[in-house]
Structure of Phosphoinositide phospholipase C:
Amino acid sequence: DLKYKILIKNKKLRSQIKADNKTEAEESADEDGDEEEEDEEDEEEEDEGHQSKAKFWSPRKAGSKKKMKKKVKVAQALSDLVIYARSVKFISFSHSKDNQNCYENTSIAEKKARKLIKASGPDFVQHNQKFLSRIYPAGSRTSSSNYNPQEFWNVGAQIVALNFQSLGLPMDLNDGRFRDNGGCGYILKPAVLMSSERSFDPSSSQNHLKPAHLLLKVISGSNLPVPKSGKALDPFVRVEIHGIPSDSRTKNTHTVKNNSLSPHWDADMNFSISVPELCLVRFCVRDQTTLFRSEFVGQYTLPFTSLKKGYRWVPLQSRDGCSLDPASLFVLV
């Protein structure tokens, strides 16, 4: 029913909330939802970082300043467009079960979401079977760094917000996750996150009785990009499995000296994966610069379920997601 449509996620005007039989207290909580949660997150981070300096603070000065909250103003035309994803404050899973409507969306800061996963992962999965959840980075990430989105996909969170201006592993995983379905940014959740018959706990390693086995041979590389210095690479390949904690693994090939054009590894790798529907496979080529240090060369990330058996050509991408053609890997699955 929602195909080819755009969903607007936002708060609604109070007058329209009242029409939905909301109380004044609930309206206020809805209106300040995102801001309050982010403020709480920042305060927790600040308290942890400055406990040792507490004795230098004056209680009178600390209590004299009250933070003024700015009320959010919503235009009538925008409020009218909010139908399927109205923003409301998250209180608890039980509260949502009893009070939240299916067309309402809650936003949870990463730190609070991580605590909920640790305390009650199966309840988080069941919550996301009925409601939309948005996870967002902590306000303390002033450098626009990112968390690992995989841990929140594991509980079925539909909107896992990242700082797209910051390149690196989290954005590589995000690109890989939505590589299915033409890269349109929307994919269906796997059945393991939608089952009403059995609860799913991403923290448990006993989810599937018969795990899948991934047998890989990393054969060779071709036309790897040479650094500005012009010196040939000392490349190796790191194969990473990103999924539930018990499935996440990393294995490396050996390093080939001074060969950027056609390095050969012929390295066999074996991975046992209990929940393949949630797994991403990341091929990362790195340059061994010193004994304990290596630098990024190129990578490619895709869902485990998109892998096909046989000899495969893996195109490499730069840190910003652009093609490094003709740089590639040759693997056997």
